[in-house]
Each structure stands twice: as structure tokens, then as C-alpha cells.
Specification:
With 351 residues, the chain is an alpha/beta fold. Helix content is 44%, strand content 20%. It has a six-stranded mixed beta sheet, with helices on both faces. Strands 3-2-1-4-5 form a five-stranded mixed beta sheet, with helices on both faces.
Length: 351
């Protein structure tokens, strides 16, 4: 054990096993503080613990399993729990468990695989039937709501601080501690009484499939599933004789009137993705009288966001509304892990 490392440090691993990648987050078992986060292709899952050890200071990957485990334990602590969400096959789930068992040995905890539920502290599930809702979608929404809640509490905190600063203006040289305490308590009440956002929240995951899910006042109302950017490309390639694959990323130009096959494919795919999102935005406006805040995740988002913002701006001009200014778009890297993290802190630590 390295000098200065607490003997009772313990580590929890959070895993998001998707269709193509395994994402891993390491947190302190006692307080939920984040240590490391990284992702690997599903073809590289056998390297998950060596990569973790490398990120913590063990140089290179050519080390024994004992070196890997000792490095993790020395720098972060013993792995005491693993919580995971998966949309992968049972075979891959079993392989992941066996991988950790082979490396960690008899001390390896059993992975707790989490599933969609009826409700949590911040989200109610209206899906029918509930168990048909993808586990990644459910925990992704919990992760999104944890960000929205933190943002709302931050806004409430700023408002409360402004209340304190505006009310607490004693005469020069005189400090009214009683009044100051009263103002601080009022500020705390402002934060603690924060209600669910009055605006709907839309969570869009650009993965193998694209999902567009809508939440209003902590109710998951439902969502859409459509082929993702890569699936759309592959379906055109495999289902036709001559159409090519195209590259769609943040630098990709989407032509108004494409005059080439690749440009036409690009425009069609991006328009399909963005159009589905705009449809849901309009339906939210029709239902609730305001546009949603949008949270997006997934690597394929980079090729769609520019066109989505352009369409929203054009829509606002057509409707004589500032739609693009009203809709805020937030990008998240790992909302499923954020949801697992939130669940662990609230349910296991009771914070």
C-alpha cells in the first residue's frame, strides 16, 4: 500500500454496457466522489481493469493481473460493489462478470444489473409495460433529471443569494446577525422547495438507435425510437445495389438541394434525425404551451446538432417566435452513468 493512502478506501464501479461500447465510472464507495471515467469498444472489454489501472498511474498495459489489482487498490481502494445497466446480450453480461472475477479473484463482488422501474425519487414511469422500457433509456433519463435538478437548484441558490444580498443591508458598522440568519434560512427554504421544472425536458440519445424521450413534471410521458445515423447509412448500403456509405460528423455540410448522391444521403439522414426531434418539440409546445429543454448524448449527435439548431431557428422565423433562443440544448457525455451515480448516492448512501 502506498504511503498516504487510507486503509479503508473502497471503490464502486458503475458500468454502462451498450450495443457497441462499455463505459466505466469509478467512484468512492463512502461519498460518491468520482475517480475516473472511460469507455472501451465491446471488442476490448477484457482491457477494462488494465485501462482503469493505467488511468490511475500504472504505465502501459503489459502488466500482470496482480499488478493491475494492486494498483487499483493502492490508488483508490478495494472494489466493494459494481452497479451496471446493459442493453447487450446475456452472453456479454456473463462475460463481463467473468472478466472481473478472473481479475479480482475471490474478492470480486457480483455485478448488480439495474432495470427500469415504476418510479424513483425524481422520475415516474408511464411506459406500458414498464419492463419493455430499455434500461439505458430509464437511467439516462434519471441522469438527465439529475443535471436538470442541479441546474434548477443552482438557479434557486443564485436567486436566494440575491435575496440575501438585497435584504441584508445593515447600517455602516452594524451587523444584524439575527436578520442575516433569517435571510439565510429563507434562502435555504427557497432551494429546498424547488419544484420540478415547469418546462418539459427532452432527452435524445444518438446511439445505435436514436431515442427521443419526453419528461414533464417528473413524469416520463413516452418517446420515439428510430434507426440511428449509422443504422440508416448501413440500411441504405445493404438494401441497395450502388449507394455508398457516407461520413457524417460535426464538419459535415448538409446541402439545401443536394446535387450528388453522397450529399443526398447525408441530407436525408440528418433531416430525418432532426425532423423527428422538431416534431416532438412542436408536440410539446402544443401540449404544454412552451418548448422543452433538450439534453443530448451519443457520438452521432455531432453530425445532427448544427442542422437541428438551423431548423429551429428557421421555424422560429416562420412562426415569428424566438424558438431557437427559447430551447436550450445541453450536451452530456454519459447520462446513463450519471443516472447510476445518482441512484447510488441517493439509495445506497442516502444523500
Amino acid at each position: 500500500m502506498e504511503a498516504g493512502v487510507e486503509q479503508d478506501k473502497q471503490l464502486v464501479l458503475l458500468l454502462d454496457s451498450g450495443n457497441t461500447r462499455l463505459k466505466c465510472r469509478c467512484i468512492d464507495a463512502h461519498n460518491g466522489v468520482l475517480y475516473q471515467q472511460f469507455s472501451l469498444s465491446n471488442t476490448q472489454v477484457e482491457s477494462v481493469l488494465p485501462v482503469l489501472a493505467q488511468s490511475m498511474g500504472l504505465g502501459g498495459l503489459a502488466h500482470s493481473e496482480r499488478d493491475v489489482v494492486q494498483t487499483i487498490q493502492a490508488l483508490a481502494g478495494k472494489v466493494v460493489a459494481m452497479h451496471a445497466v446493459a442493453v447487450t446480450s446475456p452472453a456479454l453480461k456473463q462475460a463481463i462478470q467473468q472478466l472481473f472475477q478472473a481479475t479480482l479473484g475471490s474478492d470480486c463482488p457480483t455485478i448488480e444489473w439495474h432495470h427500469s422501474a415504476q418510479d424513483t425519487r425524481i422520475l415516474r414511469n408511464l411506459y406500458e409495460p414498464i419492463h419493455h422500457l430499455g434500461n439505458d433509456r430509464w437511467f439516462g433519463m434519471i441522469g438527465v433529471l439529475s443535471h436538470a435538478q442541479a441546474k434548477q437548484e443552482g438557479d434557486a441558490s443564485k436567486q436566494a443569494q440575491n435575496t440575501v444580498s438585497s435584504k441584508t443591508k445593515p447600517a455602516p458598522g452594524v451587523i444584524s446577525q439575527t436578520k442575516l440568519n433569517a435571510d439565510i434560512n429563507q434562502a435555504r427554504n427557497t432551494i429546498s422547495k424547488a419544484k420540478p421544472s415547469e418546462r418539459a425536458i427532452m432527452y435524445i440519445s444518438f446511439g445505435t438507435a436514436t431515442t427521443v424521450d419526453t419528461i414533464y413534471e417528473q413524469d416520463f410521458l413516452g418517446g420515439m425510437i428510430l434507426p440511428g445515423v449509422d443504422l440508416m447509412q448501413n440500411s441504405l448500403k445493404q438494401g441497395t445495389a450502388q449507394l455508398p456509405l457516407v461520413t457524417i460528423n460535426a464538419e459535415t455540410r448538409v446541402d439545401t438541394f443536394p446535387r450528388g448522391t453522397q450529399a443526398a444521403i447525408t441530407a436525408g439522414i440528418v433531416a430525418a434525425q432532426a425532423g423527428a426531434i422538431v416534431r416532438q418539440c412542436l408536440l410539446v409546445y402544443e401540449q404544454f404551451g412552451s418548448y422543452p429543454d433538450i439534453y443530448v448524448a451519443g457520438g452521432a449527435r455531432f453530425g445532427v446538432l448544427a442542422e437541428l439548431k438551423r431548423i429551429l431557428s428557421s421555424l422560429g422565423q416562420a412562426l415569428n417566435q424566438s424558438v431557437s433562443a427559447e430551447i436550450e440544448i445541453y450536451e452530456l457525455e454519459a447520462p446513463v452513468l450519471d443516472g447510476l451515480h445518482y441512484h447510488y448516492v441517493k439509495e445506497s448512501l442516502g444523500k
